[in-house]
Every structure is written in structure tokens, then in C-alpha cells.
Amino acid sequence: MAAVSEYAFELALCAHLERSRNWVLSRQLGASVADPGSRVIDICGVVPGSRFDRRAAITSETIPPRAVESDVGPGRAVDPVDALDCPPAAARRVADRAVDVGFFEAERRGSRRHVRATTRYPDWFDRLIGIENKPDLGRPGDLQRQLRRDVSLGLFDAVILATESYVTGAHLNRIPESVGVWRFDDGDGSEHPRANGEAADRGAADTNRRLTVVRDPTPIDPEATGVERTAERPLRTDIAFASPEAKARKRRAIAERAYGRGWRPRADDYPACVSMRPTDDGRPHCRAFERTVDPASDCGEDCPAYDPGDPPAVDRERLRDERTPWVADPAGVARRQAGLDRFT
Question: Using one digit for the tens of pLDDT, what is the confidence trace for 13-41?
């Protein structure tokens, strides 16, 4: 079975941050404006703002960014095709989803289906923290280019490099000065909360020991015009400018995606194998190999330790609700919960 140190490191860091910071955390989110999909940030930490509770009351899921940006308000109901800046079929799909999650409600006006917002969308987060994971600095890959891009685009209020390697001055000189550096001991393979009572009881002391701040990040201004590298070739670098307005829309979309998604694997990602013993914080831990595994690439009938069994019971929503500001089952804000299928 292939080593999955970067995956295990990423999940261990998320679990650590969940214990030590009051953030909403998610993994593997798109972080580009001009070239969507060309940059994925490993971990995003959303720092709640003063209106976080108003956002949490709406829905536990992601509110479609196009619905948030639309001309649909809590006043008069409007035709979504007219109110959303996208093709008619896409507008209807966005409206359907916004109704499903409780941000829109629907009614019929004559022969047309109309929607209104159940509440005004709040300005609910304070900062976005982008974290790039590189456990082994001896194999940096495109690290320098990625971090330069993150800093110049400025979608995040701070950018941090997390590593397990010993960090030297040479390492620090190769990355932008504004990027913070954390050294994190993921502890994978040495402790399992359900098997080792001592590990489960270490609490705050262990939380402080495992992460060392090598360098604090310098704040980045997300309201400034960003510069995004879209292509790099010998003697030529193509760039695109990202306006403050475009960046604000992207930041809101990142925060919404993070809120709805979280960092744990989906429930159906855990393999139905007797060796799968998830940790108390929900990481997919393999008893046979005594470490966190990536179910997508490591598990299955080709694994020499595979032994069919019942899938593990991992309540992602309960874990997240108990350990973070996220609310699993909010009361909602709709005056009436109605699906669009009632009006079709």
C-alpha cells in the first residue's frame, strides 16, 4: 500500500486546528479567480465574524454563490431567470438549490415561478487563512510558485506553509517573506485515540506541543487589486488582474464552500473493511497498517489487509457540530419551507 503522508498530515493538521482554534475548516478548495481550478489550497480556515450566528441559522449546507450574488431579496418575489446572471436553465437550478437549503422560498405568480430570499445574506466571516501543506521540504515541487501566486493574488488574509521538516534559513529564503511557517508533528502511526487512553487524555498540552510557529505570516490586504499568474513559460509570464469586487465574490464563495463541506471524508468514503477503525475525530485509520490511510487510493480488494466487513459508523455532522462553530441542524429562517416541485 502506497504511503499517504501528505494526506495523513493534512487530516492531522485539520484535527489539531479544530481542537485549538475556533475556525470553520475545509480542505482542497479552489483558490483562483481568472483561471478556476488552476490553484487548490490544501486547507482553508474561515475565522467567524460578528454575524456568524446569523449565517449558521440559515442552513448547514453551502448557499449557492450565484444565489447570494443575485437580485433576489427578501422583499417582492421575482423570476429567477431575470434575477440571476446566468443562462435560464442554470438560473432555475441555482434557485432550486437555494430553496432546498432554505435561502430562497418559492411561490407562483400567474403561470410563472418566483422566488424571494428568506433573509438578507450576512457578512459573516472575518478572515480567510490559506494553508499549504508540504510535510517534506526536501521534495518541494511547485511550492515556491504556488505561494508566490497566493500572495500576489491576495484572496486570503494570511498564507501559511505547514511542514513536518526541520526548517532552515535556506528554506525560509526560498518562499515569500509574507508567508508564515508552521512546523507540525502529525503524530500519525504513533497514537490512536480509541486504542491508547493516554493519547486521548493529553488534551491541551499535546495541542500546544505539536505545532511550532517558525514564522508568523504578514497580513495580506484582500481589498487590493490582485495579480494572478495564469501561465508561466521561459521568458514569459501571463497574468490577469483580479479586482477587489471579483476577489470579494471569490472569497465569499470559498467561505461558503468551506462552511458546507468541512474537512472530514464523506461517510461513504470509509471502506467496509474490518481493519478500518476511524479515530475519535473521524480520520480513516487502518488497524492493519497502524496509520491514517486515504480510502480513495489505498483501500479496496487490492490491499493485502483487506477483509470485508460492515462500514464504520462515522457521524461527521455530530463530530463537527460538537467541535466547531458550525451548526448541524439549524432552525432555519424561512417563513415556510417549500420545495420548488410544488410549483411545477
Answer: 999 999 999 999 999 999 999 988 889 99
Same domain for 10 and 98? no
Strand partners of residue 27: 43
**From CA 296, how far away is CA 299, in angstroms rounded?**
7
Q: What share of the chain is helix, strand, coil (3-state, %, to 5)?
A: 30, 20, 45
What does R_g of the chain's alpha carbons equal in angstroms?
22
pLDDT interval class at 112 (50, 70, 90): confident
Last residue of a domain, one of 261, 295, 324: 261
Torsions phi, psi of 67, nearest 5? -70, -40
| 13 closest CA partner among 127, 134, 128, 125 | 134
14, 32: one domain: yes
For 93, the grid coordinates are: 437550478
**Which residues are CB-contacts of 301 (< 8 A; sequence separation ≥ 6)?**
none
Phi, psi angles (nearest 5°) of residue 255: -60, -40
Contact 280, 193 (CB under 8 A): yes
- Please give the Cα distance from 202 to 188 (Å, whole number): 15
Judged by phi (left if over 0) then psi (alpha if -120 to 50, else beta), residue 56 lies in alpha
Q: What percentage of the chain exceeds 90 in pLDDT? A: 70
* 28 is a domain residue: yes
Which of 203-206's residues contact partners 24+ apart within 8 Å by CB, and which partners? Answer: none
pLDDT at 166 over 80: yes
The answer, as to whether pTM is greater than 0.85, is yes
Mean pLDDT over the full length of the chain: 88
Q: Is residue 203 pLDDT above 80, yes or no?
A: no
Is there a contact between 339 and 82 (Cβ–Cβ < 8 Å)?
Answer: no
Angle at 37 between CA 34 and CA 41, to 5 degrees: 105
| The total number of structural domains that make up the chain | 2
Q: What would the DSSP string read from start to end of 271-284?
A: -SBTTB---TT---
Q: Give one DSSP letter per residue of 191-232, joined into a string.
A: --TTT-HHHHH-HHHHHHHHEEEEEPPPP--TTSPEEEEEEE
